Amino acid sequence: MPTTFSPVYRAASAADVPAIVALVESAYRGESGQRGWTTETHLLDGQRTDAANVEELIARAGSLVLLAERDGVLVGCCHVEQQGDHGYFGMFAVSPELQMAGLGRALLAEAERIAREQWQLAAMRMSVIEQRAELIAWYERRGYRLTGETGAFPYGQPRFGIPRRDDLRFVYMSKPLQEVAA
């Protein structure tokens, strides 16, 4: 169903950290995450992020934690970071009650717009857990392509979650943001 509202976007501040952590955890972990389609509970237990991680992302140079709000309430967030000539997209979360309403698509488009127009970056990259086929397909419908690169899952580092299986790894995806001159 199409979104029935236009979110208000803004950069996160340190005061937003508790709300960001709560939103990310609700979208990916536990019972609330199972209401939306982004849950990772079949792959991971434990936390998805924590206050220290979010604080560091907000404070880091060349980094933006972008918030989407409706009526002053946080309903979506993502992290975008400048890495050379491309942006890196991560920590993407939409309130489970609002998933499938177009908010995620709109938030991703806003992050891409910032990377393209404000930072003049050539492409956006991201990593996705390989076993998240539905999520990979969602990004592919938005123009992202698998790069063929893979990365190890950080086993033994519970701040990234506690794996339920021993075959997790990341795949990398990329999307051009600038028109290529002919």
UniProtKB/TrEMBL annotation:
Keyword Mitochondrion: no
N-acetyltransferase domain location: 7-178
Keywords noted in UniProt: Acyltransferase, Transferase
CDD domains: NAT_SF
Any Pfam family hit: Acetyltransf_1
GO terms for MF: acyltransferase activity, transferring groups other than amino-acyl groups
Top-level taxon of origin: Bacteria
PANTHER family: AMINOALKYLPHOSPHONATE N-ACETYLTRANSFERASE-RELATED, AMINOALKYLPHOSPHONATE N-ACETYLTRANSFERASE-RELATED-RELATED
Organism: Dyella jiangningensis
Name this polypeptide is given: GNAT family N-acetyltransferase
InterPro entries (UniProt xref): Acyl_CoA_acyltransferase, Bact_Acetyltransf, GNAT_dom
